[in-house]
TrEMBL record:
SUPFAM superfamilies: Nucleotide-diphospho-sugar transferases. PANTHER family: GLYCOSYLTRANSFERASE 8 DOMAIN-CONTAINING PROTEIN (PTHR13778), LIPOPOLYSACCHARIDE 1,3-GALACTOSYLTRANSFERASE (PTHR13778:SF47). InterPro entries: Glyco_trans_8 (IPR002495), Glycosyltrans_8_dom-fam (IPR050748), Nucleotide-diphossugar_trans (IPR029044). CDD domains: GT8_A4GalT_like. The keyword Cytoplasm does not apply. It comes from the Bacteria. Keywords: Glycosyltransferase, Metal-binding, Transferase. This is Glycosyltransferase family 8 protein. GO terms for molecular function: glycosyltransferase activity; metal ion binding.
Amino acid sequence: MDNAVKYIISNEYQKQQENSPLRDVVYCIDKNFLLGAGVSATSILINSKEKYNFHFFTDYIDNHTLEKFNLLAKNFETNVYIYFIDSAAFTKFPVRAKWSVATYYRFIAFHYLSDKTHALYLDADVICKSCPDELFQLDLTGKFAAIIPDLDKVQEKCEARLGVTGLAGKYFNAGVIYINLSEWQKQHFSEKAISMLSDKSKEFSFLDQDVLNILF
């Protein structure tokens, strides 16, 4: 897992400050969602006056996209970090027509950002329509994350499907997560997630989202 990130490209236009730490936002994407992730990050910057570090974990990058991300960082005086991931380690895990192996990159991202205390994970199709500051002010002391419950139709079958008593009504959507990275590291959740996904006797219809719901 420690070798999954092959290299990092940094676009830094905002200094890190101890008395006013920058907020961290994470995206895990493949080639098809590079544009979407950039639009999502832009929507945050348009609606917030706070300073950010944007972390993009991806298995594909090209010069055109690199130029766009650098312009994003420069124009908004923010920091953009691109982490190139070797996807080979994830090819043994199940995928779906609408979910590639990139959906698992969050387990690398949360492990790799161990020097951070909190981060906001967003799917690339999430758009910020108002000031997101309230999210970053949530107190996660003693909690793994702040999450959003999934749709009722998903809740109905999740308990029986995953064999987790009491999960119905609590099953959450993994597209927006404000994660307590300190607790994540303490619980070794990345390692546990990879172990669960490697168990061929188990089937996860919603892939990493199912795994996260079991872990939490």
